[in-house]
From TrEMBL:
Keywords tagged on the record: DNA integration, DNA recombination, DNA-binding
Record-annotated Tyr recombinase domain positions: 168-338
Protein name stated in the entry: Site-specific recombinase XerD
Alphabetical GO biological process terms: DNA integration; DNA recombination
Length: 341
């Protein structure tokens, strides 16, 4: 009696009738919800030949019939091979973008055209940023599919995001709300909200910041992520938050912002602490990203140098002259930071 193949390995079955290649090689594929079904990947004249094909498939599934690879299968393989090379924040946005491609999960990737990709952005009903993430995901998948010889045309290169970004729903903290925070700055974690407002860092840029990224002697942070303009940027420490910074560093182990137990904040737990602090000053919802908007808005209203503001925010300057010829020193960045009251 022949030994059974391991679970998930696949099978070889002989079809009825007079056929030149009667042996069908079947493997199990899974959709995004984890439901598996057996599908044929090739046919053979003999059982021995079919078993060789099945063994080759299990050695490298991409060597067999690329015409049958679905979006869900390609995405799963991309997560295993390419995704680990991306930053955690970037990968999070691409995973979220994939949910908007649900109608195409079972579609063979070679059959996906530009209008299919475009529809996932146009019909998502989300912001400009979300549409940009969806486009970025298609770009990553197209590159991977091209590398595997699944496609010979990269339709992601001709799709586009709507230029209408719309009005942001985020509103900066008011001067009164910031002042109210200062009045209760001795309460638990209020210092964290003020640090976000006075540095302009993104949520994860500060949560991922380690103690060695803060230079107390020269009084600046060095951190950031997301783009070449944002990575490893220097943000001088405003005098008003310096006591908070020193206190945090004194009791921290590895990360600048840590829990009472001395561990790194988990994103969900951090949001709960944040909401508690915000409830002290307003019933409105305020997010860490609105603290970042506050930083930029206050500096702009105070007449801060646009190039300095862009550098502090980690933005690429929109003005080519500023971007290429204007190099600001740390002291000039510090002068801009001091415009915050």
């Amino acid at each position: 009696m022949a030994r059974r193949n391991p679970n998930g390995y696949g099978s070889v079955t002989k079809l009825k009738g007079n056929r030149s290649r009667p042996y069908v090689v079947k493997v199990t594929t899974y959709d995004e919800d984890g439901h598996g079904r057996q599908v044929p990947v090739d046919y053979a004249a003999t059982r021995e030949e079919a078993n060789i094909i099945l063994a080759r498939y299990n050695d490298n599934p991409w060597n067999i019939d690329r015409n049958r690879v679905t979006l869900a299968e390609l995405y799963k393989r991309w997560l295993e091979v390419k995704a680990p090379k991306l930053g955690s924040s970037r990968l999070y946005t691409l995973k979220a973008a994939y949910k908007h491609c649900q109608k195409l999960y079972g579609k063979k990737y070679r059959q996906i055209r530009a209008y299919h990709m475009q529809a996932t952005m146009d019909d998502c009903g989300r912001s400009y940023a979300t549409q940009s993430h969806i486009k970025a995901l298609w770009w990553h998948l197209d590159n991977f599919a091209f590398e595997l010889d699944i496609i010979d045309k990269m339709y992601s290169q001709i799709i586009s995001v709507s230029t209408e970004q719309g009005e942001t729903k985020r509103t900066p903290f008011t001067e009164k709300e910031v002042e109210d925070l200062w009045k209760i700055s001795d309460q638990k974690n209020v210092d964290i909200v003020l640090i976000y407002i006075y540095t302009g860092f993104r949520l994860m840029e500060l949560l991922n910041m380690t103690c060695d990224q803060i230079n107390l002697e020269e009084e600046y942070f060095k951190g950031g992520s997301k783009s070449s303009s944002g990575k490893n940027r220097i943000v001088p420490i405003h005098p008003r938050i310096m006591p908070f910074v020193k206190n945090r560093l004194k009791k921290s182990n590895e990360y600048f912002l840590e829990t009472d137990e001395g561990s790194k904040f988990k994103k969900g737990d951090f949001y709960e602490e944040w909401k508690t602090v915000i409830s002290y000053i307003t019933k409105k919802k305020k997010t860490p990203h609105e603290a970042r908007h506050t930083f930029e808005t206050f500096l702009d209203n105070a007449g801060g140098n646009r190039k300095c503001i862009d550098m502090l925010m980690g933005h690429k300057s929109k003005d080519v002259g500023n971007r290429v010829y204007n190099h600001k020193t740390v002291e000039q960045l510090r002068e801009t930071i001091l415009l915050l009251k």
